[in-house]
Amino acid sequence: MKNTDFFDIKSLLTEEHKLFIDSLSDFVDIEILPVIEEHFLEGTYPSELTLKLAELGIFGITIPQEYGGAGADYLMYGLAMQELERGDSAIRSFASVQSSLVMYPIYKYGSENQKNKWLPKLASAESIGCFGLTEPDFGSNPAGMLTNAVKTRSGYLLNGAKMWITNGTLADIAIVWAKLDGIVHGFLVEKGTPGFSAPEMKGKHSLRASVTSELIFQDCEIPEENILNISGLKGPLSCLTQARYGIAWGAVGAAIAVYESAVEYSKTRIQFGKPIGAFQLVQEKLAYMLTEISKAQLINFRLAQLMDGGNATPQHVSFAKRNNVRMALDCARIAREIHGANGILSEYPVMRHAANLESVLTYEGTHDIHTLILGQHITGIAAYE
Amino acid sequence: MNILVCVSRVPDTATKVFVGADGKSIDPKGVKFILNPYDEFALEEGLRLKEKNGGNVTAITIGSPEATEILRTALAMGADDAVLIKGDNLDSYQVAYNISEHAKAKNYDIIFAGKQSVDFDSGQVPSLVAAMLDIPSISVVSKLEINGATLLAERDIEGGKEVLEASLPCLVSAQKGLNEPRYPKLPDIMKAKKKPIEELDAKPADAKVSVISMELPSKERVGKILGDSDADISEIVRSLHEEAKVI
Ligand SMILES: Cc1cc2nc3c(=O)[nH]c(=O)nc-3n(C[C@H](O)[C@H](O)[C@H](O)COP(=O)(O)OP(=O)(O)OC[C@H]3O[C@@H](n4cnc5c(N)ncnc54)[C@H](O)[C@@H]3O)c2cc1C
Fold first, then answer.
1. Chain A: residue nearest B70 by CA?
2. What are the chain A neighbours of B193 within 8 Å (beta carbons)?
3. A16 flagged as catalytic
4. Of the residues A134, A135, A382, B37, which has the fewest C-beta atoms closer than 10 A?
5. CATH number of the domain that B42 lies in?
């Protein structure tokens, strides 16, 4: 890691981890950073990156090689998300959705046919996927979802609407969560299925380089074999645990980007005849950021060990997502402040990250919902029910 | 096609280097080492050739056991196997001798190398290897085309370019621009773990030169800052002419 790594996490990595993050770090510097501000300003997803990311092996890092994945460990996945989000949260979001929210449920709950049909294509990005759980009226409380499926002679009839769906408009395959006889089930809905549309949502001030969409189902009939073999909310929640793990790492990448920009700026910006980094108030901010980033890195490294050992709980993941995203957002705001007026310009990465992290704080379980998950873990009392 | 790529482990050009206690080597402490950038072009060209024509790419390096690290990088980029010949502080002749001794037994169709290593910049090894093997050598190549047993190579020369023809087997040293080296991909990195690295001790050969001393650029060469008055400008011209001797 040529970037911030105060406690030398790098020395704990294998040769493979190091090779991959070095490769990815170059990719972020050379392919993502030069184009991302423009895409952010235009509100477009840099689609030219998708195939390159697939070639690098970003999609399905933990999925076995027989299905086109890399068969690597969770530590590798985490490190990769950290690097990608040092580029932009939108790119990391794309990777999280494709890997954790689409490939993972197909791998975990799909039939052998579904796995063979979709996983290699998703790994190579020949197909893009999306994950539809949130609805206009049900965000933190997905159990209340209205989208429903009815059994027909040859399959299922879907009706309802999803909102805030990353990559919805781009997707060839949507993993849609809907109630069948009152119980949540997962369905694979292919692009072009009659009765299914996915218009893009416009007007975002955050995650502007990511496509966010509605999914609309009007008497959308899907074949019998397109159902996943899992019932109840634990299906989608297990996917979210995977994605949140990646977000906990990714957020640190965003924090590193804004911190490094702030360090550089505070050494070169002269006020009152000195670099602003010479002032104690600025040093305090930098020390705070380095401390918080390093703590988050240590949490992530331990969490990766737990994930790889099969001992991580959803509460561990909530802890890390909650802590690290809030930390990254705080760093982005502080870094923005250190950059003064320049901090709002696209010449520096700080405002973009600050804006992006507002979404990251909310999606995949809001900060407060993760607080309540921990609260329930501590007290045994669920405050959100 | 049977392809050999010569690679070396060099300090990252972005790291600050210091001279070691012996006064004639780089102190490796705190230095990040990388695959020599020109060797990346060489390796990429070898890999593309193999992808087009089939065959095998072997990466070879002569150096300390730590050089295994860059062989892993080469394997992760797609080389099929690698050879580490262990020997420290060898001169260009000894390095070339060991590469050619390895190559003699293997019948490579083509040997690639970077045009120079960015650590010591001698630029001697490629030509020496070719001479020892008695095969043609084309240096500083920026474009390469192979048809059957014939090879067309383009070189940038002052104010233009030159096209050369040679027949295989041949040695080609790579210049920047020959291609766009790939980023190591995760699936290849995972596969690289299982690829073989053969380790041998360097065969003895007498060094032709030895390093007497090494030093950092002298402090006097550190930049001077002058103002923009006429007198300052005359001073700049004078020091460029008399001290730096560049005009
Ligand atoms: C850019 C973006 C991309 C997204 N991508 C996807 C996607 O790909 N797929 C998908 O399914 N969803 C996606 N989402 C949706 C996201 O997961 C939801 O926005 C999130 O779950 C929160 O739901 P909500 O926005 O409806 O907020 P609400 O649930 O309405 O929450 C509003 C506020 O109330 C608080 N709150 C709610 N309930 C409680 C409670 N019991 N106690 C205390 N406080 C509470 C929340 O913490 C929050 O602060 C995305 C969202 C964004 C912004």
1. A19
2. 15-16
3. no
4. A382
5. 3.40.50.620
B37/B144 same-domain check: yes
Residue A365 CA to ligand 1 centre (angstroms)? 6
Which pLDDT score is estimated for B17? Answer: 85
The verdict on domain A129-230 having CATH code 2.40.50.140 is no
Joined together, the tokens standing for residue B118 give 């960015």
Q: Quick one: pLDDT at residue B26?
A: 86
Q: What percent of chain A has pLDDT over 90?
A: 99
- Give percent of chain A with pLDDT exceeding 70: 100
pLDDT interval class at B239 (50, 70, 90): confident
Domain spans of chain A? 9-123, 129-230, 235-379
Nearest to A16 among B69, B183, B193 (CB): B193
Are B108 and B223 part of one and the same domain? no
Return the residue of A nearest to B12 by Cα: A2
Topology annotation, domain A235-379: Butyryl-CoA Dehydrogenase, subunit A; domain 3 (1.20.140)
Amino acid at A139: G
Chain A nearest-CA distance from B34, in A, is 10
Joined together, the tokens standing for residue B50 give 């193999």
Q: Counting every residue, how long is chain B?
A: 247
pLDDT digits (tens, 9 = 90+) for B4-52: 999 999 998 888 888 988 888 888 888 888 999 999 999 999 999 999 9
List the one residue out of B160, B139, B150 whose CA is nearest residue B41.
B139
What kind of fold does domain A9-123 have according to CATH?
Butyryl-Coa Dehydrogenase, subunit A; domain 1 (1.10.540)
For residues A108 and A97, give the distance between their C-alpha atoms in angstroms, rounded to a whole number.
Answer: 15
